[in-house]
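Pilot study result, target chain (168 residues):
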Amino acid sequence: MIKVGDTLPLATLQEYSEIEGEGCSIGPNPVDVAKATAGKTIALFALPGAFTPTCSAKHVPGYVQHFDDFKAAGVDEIWCVSVNDAFVMGAWARDQKTGTKVRMLADGSADFAKATGLTLDLTGRGMGLRSNRYSMLVKDGKVATLNVEAPGKFEVSDADTLLAQARG
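Predicted structure:
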C-alpha cells in the first residue's frame, strides 16, 4: 500500500469536460498523474463510487464547500478519484455542482487504485473492484499525508481533516 513519502504511481486517469478549454476538448480527456501533479499541491480524495449515498451526501460536498479554504492553505487543485468511467464522473460533477472547484477523475479500470494498493472488493455487492475511501495531500507528486478509512467508515478522509493537514 502507498504510504507517506511515496511518489504517486504512473497512471492515466480520465476527465470529462463539458466545456472546451485550454488544450482540452470536450471529454473524456487523459490526465497523466505525474505531469498533472508536478510542481503542485493536490488535495486528492478517493471513494468507492459516483452517486453512492455517503459519497454524494458528505464526501464531495465537503470539498466543494471548502474550496476557498483549500486555496488559502496553498492547495492548487482538489481531485476526486473513483472507479467509474469518465462519462459517469462528468454526470456526477454536474449533479454535485463541482464546477471548476473539484476535478472529477475517472479510474475506469481501477489501475490507479490497484497501483496504490488502496482497493476495495465490492464484488459481493455487484460493484466489482473499487477504490477504498481515503484522502491524501500530494506535493509535487509525492504523498505528504494519507488518511485511509476503515471499511464502511467516513471519519478521516473528509474535507475538514485534509484541510487541517494542508494548513498544518
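One observation from the pilot: Residues 53-65 form the longest helix (13 residues). A full batch analysis is planned for the follow-on phase.
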